[in-house]
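Regression test attached.
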Amino acid sequence: AIQLTQSPSSLSASVGDRVSITCRASQGISTALAWYQQKPGKPPKFLIYDASTLEKGVPSTFSGSGSGTDFTLTISSLQPEDFATYYCQQFKSYPITFGQGTRLEIK
Amino acid sequence: QVQLQESGPGLVKASETLSLTCTVSEYSINSPYYWDWIRQPPGKGLEWLGSIYESGSAYYNPSLNSRISMSIDTSANQFSLKLRSVTAADTAVYYCTRREASGGFDYWGQGALVTVSA
């Protein structure tokens, strides 16, 4: 199975900050990567697919980049509603796997 | 707007079978998408369990050691999960989802907490 490792595991930041979360795959997955945002008690929300394509309705403050084994989710200017846990997910091959999550907290 | 809703017992005894059904609304399940189950133990991350296509072909996570089976009922617009021989480690919120061609999970149910009791 392809393993995904996210860093950092947790992150403290302030409203208006620019933050980046990385996701490293144990083998090359081209751009077969998605990102999700999850808030407590809610299902994950689909943010980005194909490593860099924003899902409809996702604010342009979110962006994704990368290919192969290294990927980044960037939020250019944090808003209060962005504080949540973020997961990456690969669909290059079965079994589909997720990163362990990055918790983004208010400083 | 596609809607998914999980249903089934919230409490299952250890060694028994966990059974959940996902009812899809406002969209036909008889379409070129995969329908998946994902779970999340309390306070932990996401684990993909398996996928089923409208044809009935399925892919399962090998980590479940053949305890899993999925089925699809296109006439009822539902798909189902069975997980046999459950233990406390199977206690989790179980989500049903739609997976689009790009491979991402674009629609999710609200989740069903299933607790395995001794």
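Expected vs. actual: identical. Chain A has a mean pLDDT of 97.
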